[in-house]
Amino acid sequence: MRHIVFLDTTLRDGEQTPGVHINRGGKLEIARVLEKLGVDIIEAGFPAASQGDFRCVEEISRNVRKPVICALARCVEDDVKAAAEALKDAEKKRLNLFIATSPIHMEHKLRMTPEQVLKRAGDCLSLACRLFDDVEFSCEDATRSDPDFLVKIFDIAVAAGAKTINIPDTVGYASPAEFGELVRYIRRNVKGADSVAVSSHCHNDLGMAAANALAAIENGADQVECTINGVGERAGNAALEEIAMALRTRADHYGCEIGLDTTVLTRISRLVSSLYGVTVPVNKPIVGANCFAHESGIHQHGMMMDRRTYEIMTPESVGLTAENFVMGKLSGRHAFAKRLTELGYTTLSADAVTQCFARFKSYADKKNVTDDDIMAIVNEYLDSQTQIYRLVNFQIQSGSSGRAMAMVTLAAGDGEMSEAAIGDGPIDAAFNAVHRLSGATDISLDEFEIKAVTEGTDALGEARVKLTVDGGVYTGRSVSPDIIESCIRAYVNALNKWAGTGGEG
Ligand code: KIV
Ligand code: ZN
User: Fold this and answer.
1) Same domain, 216 and 341
2) Which of 387 and 365 is assigned the larger pLDDT?
3) Does 74 sit in the ligand 1 pocket, CB within 6 Å?
4) Which of 229, 244, 276 is where one domain is finished?
């Protein structure tokens, strides 16, 4: 059976999800679970894009040894050098070098002629192949490019020494039949294509990303690029779990083999959802909460007779177990640490576990604490490692008549600062006070969600916010038994992401 290579780009293309900014600790946790899942290649970031991205690639290169670690670079000398530097400690490394090839991108974005693009690609490929043994070459917006131009530029890439040629459907435009045909055309016409891997990279704007990736495989692609839960820019990327389970479940049809341990899929889906703050819809294939739920009487009857009547995969095959761990006040640090590992947090220091355990205990005295709560506690801890502002204290005055007043104290660096503000209700007042303390000129609250994570009047409340701050989008979330505290923490969490990027969005 043909082996299909999985390049996971959750940490690079997936992090281009609007409002998502993950720090190094969170990225390393995800990389470790991707390694357990068995992906062949982790695209860890775009080192030239920011200092933060550079450091993430560096950290993952040092700590994740089994998969190949890949970094993205434009056809720009400094990008290639930054990637080489960031990847220097990786045991196995790859450079993904890209340039746009569609008329619309070349003319309006690059402002280059097709000849200039060919020349730039050739020059950068020779530098890249001198610095790296493993170079992938990607044509951005390939599906809106002239197929013969693609052949020309891929000829140059293969001659220069690229080992993988990648065909991105950057704007999710192609249909499966067209995309499959394009893959076949490239395979047949690029000189030396038989000696290199052909890869697909599909976006989901028309909901066809996974279908397009599978069509590519049917037409000879050796590699698929994808993300966990399909996260990514706009409608996202092809979802890894959908492609993987299609290839596994329909091995009779595709005749391909994958090196993934699919029982890790549920765990990594939850970890990415929790760290990215992007909820998985209940009907999302493979990992949605309803995927193995059977509502109608006829279905339930069939399931009782034989599960195969209505299930084409078992819940166990994607790592969904019947056990529903609930940790309570009697759970000790050892059980808590073990649960963290099972949830995918494997890089926390003993001190980090102790701090998270203390927070867990303060909640567990009141309630049973679910996996979601534990993940929220750890994610807040991870965020706190790079935070600039920390909530110290708040006081609220509100009632049924008149406006509310909030006094908020934040710590920043060695000092503390306080502000009072009024608002339409306690949360509005508190947000106004934090806004003043942050020094941001322009903040709009685009989304705001509060929900009870557990049951009862002493339930843990979860707050999520999405802010536009000085033109960039930032999300924040928090849990606490005090819902107002939860809201303020979520707001501060989003502002920390803004402050951490130097306000660059
Ligand atoms: O979608 C795309 O074209 C990309 C490339 C940079 C590989 O992500
Ligand atoms: Zn992409």
Assistant:
1) no
2) 387
3) no
4) 276
Instruction: Please tell me the residue having the least CA distance from ligand 1 atom 7.
Output: 138
Ligand 1 neighbour 170 (Cβ under 6 A): yes
State if residue 102 touches ligand 1 by the CB under 6 angstroms criterion: no
| DSSP string across 101-158 | -SHHIIIIII---HHHHHHHHHHHHHHHHHH-SSEEEEEETGGGS-HHHHHHHHHHHH
The closest ligand to the CA of 97 turns out to be 1
Residues 377 and 247 in one domain: no
pLDDT band at 110 (very low <50, low <70, confident <90, very high): very high
Instruction: Judge whether 108 lies within some domain.
Output: yes
What's the mean pLDDT when you consider all of the chain? 91
**pLDDT digits over 219-259, tens only?**
999 999 999 999 999 999 999 999 999 999 999 999 999 99
Pocket residue to mutate for ligand 1, from 17, 170, 223, most atoms within 8 A of Cβ: 170
Q: Please tell me the distance from the alpha carbon of residue 378 to that of residue 375, in angstroms, as a whole number.
A: 5
User: Where in the sequence is the domain holding 252, given as residue range(s)?
Assistant: 2-276
> Are 60 and 170 within one domain?
yes
Residues 38-61, mean pLDDT to the nearest whole number? 96
Residue 62's Cβ-side half-sphere holds a number of Cα atoms within 13 Å equal to 9
How many C-beta neighbours within 10 Å does residue 47 have?
A: 26
Residue that has been written with the tokens 């993934």 in this structure: 260
Taken as a whole, the chain contains a residue count of: 505
370 and 393, same domain (yes or no): no
> Are residue 405 and residue 432 in the same domain, yes or no?
yes
Average confidence (pLDDT) over 338-367: 87
Greater pLDDT, 176 or 274: 176
Binding site membership of 13 for ligand 1 (Cβ less than 6 Å): yes
- Asked if residue 292 is part of any domain, the answer here is no
Taking the centre of ligand 1 as the mean of its atom positions, its distance from the CA of residue 271, in whole angstroms, is 24
Per-residue confidence band for 455, with pLDDT thresholds at 50, 70 and 90: low
Q: Give the Å distance between the CA of 413 and the centre of ligand 1.
A: 38
Last residue of a domain, one of 382, 398, 419: 382
Q: Is 505's pLDDT higher than 50?
A: no
Least confident window among 111-120, 413-422, 454-463 = 454-463
Q: CB-based contacts of 203: which residues, under 8 Å, 6+ apart?
A: 168, 169, 170, 171, 172, 209, 232, 233, 234, 235, 236, 237, 238
